[in-house]
């Protein structure tokens, strides 16, 4: 272990109000910690800044999965385990369950949270593509205020978010859809190794065809192909209103080439990521044409 | 007893957590050490600065000038310092050691020692070393060269009607990734001498290195193995350095115990890995599909110091032409110096590299003469009475074509090959499937006269009540040494397995039975255990303590008691003697390279997803002859584990270098297979007992590392038509080949 343990202090409030009060008092210097599966990796290798940390683990207000006719709402502390085991999520949001089932392995799934995955803001995170495809909204809270914002647009640049210091992510909600049979979910995590892999590319595509077979709704989220997780807007625009065909698949591939701006890093190459995103865009359209 | 699955000797303490690994051991007044290292691959050390707001006067600090004896790691050559002094030869090289009782403070302080180094031009590839971009070792940067020659390839290539196939094959570094990172504890002082406890494979290697470091007598240095969580060769030579560092700190601290434990990042950054390699082949085949001439040039990246590279090169060289009959063979080989951290021992020891090149190349040769990979090999496999590249006449009663047939049958080779070809040819097939094989051998024990030089010794000691203690320096590192030694002894003495105890390797108590490497533990040291036990029984018989032919355990116990009552003790010591006919000419690199070989045919079935170019191994068949199998579960475990490591080598494991440092030195980014990436493995033992092994056993451990990579890449070529010639065959590599193929198809 490379960390200097005495250099860290951990506060562990039992209620959300108390936590927000502490954050309001030192918004710049108090860092939340949820499951710790991202932060403790930094701690172990001596790269976690010394200072004060606020444990969220005891805040029950940040837990639970609520269901209404309109939304499924997940507390920020919802773990991968909670997600992958949930019957309604399995039925209506299978790509989020797939992301949870393919994140880390069992120990990480028991501890890692949806909130942590979002706020850690890794461009390689696995649940954001599904959240983008399902058009999630997130609620940010601070002392004396709360706001809902669309998840699309939340990540502004590498590790830069539309979030104020002192704001906590409280929950995530997913709009429920009707006529499940008319929707196609296409999810693919490309990590080379089956589990315990950080994505080289992660692709989540959702589409609904109208009665004539044209694409009525389409949303595509990707990870590991840009400085932030990405909504593939060019590809979505190319597909909307069109009828799936081999020609449309080629157009989707061309559009995807414009959407992604991948880089070379320790895990893969820009070229590989570009080609795989393009192939997956084509395969998504192929799936729609049956 | 032999051939049964007795419970592991150290199984219960391991599963209950009672076994003490080095970091579990508790010492009074313990200091925690840390190593300050160069981040520059080549340079000159100018100064060391101790910075930050730290109580530096409380720290124990050791530099090269503090070394009481010789500042060299005594191994084959003496070119590597324990602490760099002046010249920096690789990133990660140790320069300064610090220790303090407060572990947290050590963690903070290690970031505040700044090394001032003037960089020099580094050499970071085999090609740059050959081109002498900088001179690192001798005149030509070669730590060692070998030439093996049989017949005349030069003349043979001149004949008419031959098909000539050339190729180049490369492999990257590979990390052993034992579960337990390296670690040592030392107590050292002028008065008390040096005692080391640690995670290690070869206690006497550490002993040999520490005696000159402190200028002490051999009796004043004692090395004790702690429970060790895996090695795979990675704890063969490097632990000597860690032990030296811990001992230097303790010496400077006046004999206080010092613990030096590496975390994963440090372990992966600085300790040894498998040697990267380049193998070039030129092969001539006649119209009947027979090998006429084979020329091989084999080069490895030795890293910054000589360490064991010459021996790794030797094994890679001897295995470079494989188990094939060919009248004209010529192998040239070189281990080159670079500014990488020294590469070292890793399961297979150079053979997986050269066998990869050969077995990939043979598939291409087969295609060039229009034969299937199996038929081409069948026509060329060695038969008893024929010779290897080193002119060794095969005297073992092997039947390689029969093993090939068995592997083909078990894997359903012919049917699958055909079915895959039909499916793959279909328009738009997204998943392509293929099947590939490799046939190979692996020499058991040390090379050539190595075992004679080692002259290993084993002791067997009887106690009151007939229990037996085996004294050997062979270490249990997870592979089952203690269990098989106890089985061999129990069989030889005809007493219960439970009566056998294995002494903990401690140089103050056990003789030098050589290092725990090279699959020699079972075949060579195990044979000494067997002989020692027989000597013991002979002593009891000669003394009249055991009468007649047979005896039972009770009679044995009574005999031991009576003998010990009369003579005070009952012990036997045995020393290695080579089997008859094992002769080796070191100068010409000719003769019996190994007393025995393991033989194998492996078949891999793969799928390749053409959307993502990810290859997966779907099924694996491993047929091998390792002589008599002593413990079927352990032996199968060796094969399954080795095949898994081989899958990692083939598809995933990629050391990413930047400025001479491994930069993916975490398990997150250095990808090894998990259980989910490992297919069903059909392990088949084709037992041909070896006359000079214990109950007929040979070595098993290294064989399964050799075959998977070429079999898998041969299967990828069968699936996709893409010829991948470098390891690992990561999706990025397969993609590059696929795009190149597609581009060539459109352009011409
Ligand atoms: C072995 C291993 C495997 C992994 N595999 C994967 C994988 O396959 N896919 C993947 O996407 N990730 C993976 N991860 C990363 C990690 O598990 C996930 O990102 C996880 O979701 C993080 O959640 P956490 O609660 O543990 O975050 P923490 O480490 O507690 O926090 C992460 C960040 O989020 C902030 N934060 C957390 N909760 C809140 C909140 N409610 N409000 C405001 N800020 C908050 C913290 O301040 C911190 O900056 C892996 C990690 C490990 C160690």
Descriptive account of the structure:
The complex is a heterodimer of chains A (290) and B (748). Chain A is α+β, with helices and mostly antiparallel strands and 290 residues long. Chain A is built from 11 helices and 14 strands. In chain A, the strands form 4 sheets. Chain A has a 5-stranded antiparallel sheet. Chain A has a 4-stranded antiparallel sheet with strand order 11-12-13-14, sandwiched between helices. In chain A, strands 1-3-2 form a 3-stranded parallel sheet, with helices on one face. In chain A, strand 6 and strand 7 form a beta hairpin. In chain A, helix 9 packs antiparallel against helix 10 and helix 10 packs antiparallel against helix 11. The longest helix of chain A is centred in the C-terminal third of the chain and has 19 residues. The model of chain A has no long low-confidence stretch (mean pLDDT 97). Chain B is of the alpha+beta class and 748 residues long. Chain B has 3 domains: 184 residues, Aldehyde oxidase/xanthine dehydrogenase, a/b hammerhead (Aldehyde Oxidoreductase, domain 3), CATH 3.90.1170; 330 residues, Aldehyde oxidase/xanthine dehydrogenase, molybdopterin binding domain (Aldehyde Oxidoreductase, domain 4, 2-Layer Sandwich); 120 residues, Aldehyde Oxidoreductase, domain 4 (2-Layer Sandwich), CATH 3.30.365. The longest helix of chain B has 23 residues. The N and C termini of chain B lie far apart (66 Å). The interface between A and B is medium-sized, with 34 and 31 residues. Flavin-adenine dinucleotide binds next to strand 2, helix 2, helix 6, helix 7 and strand 10 of chain A.
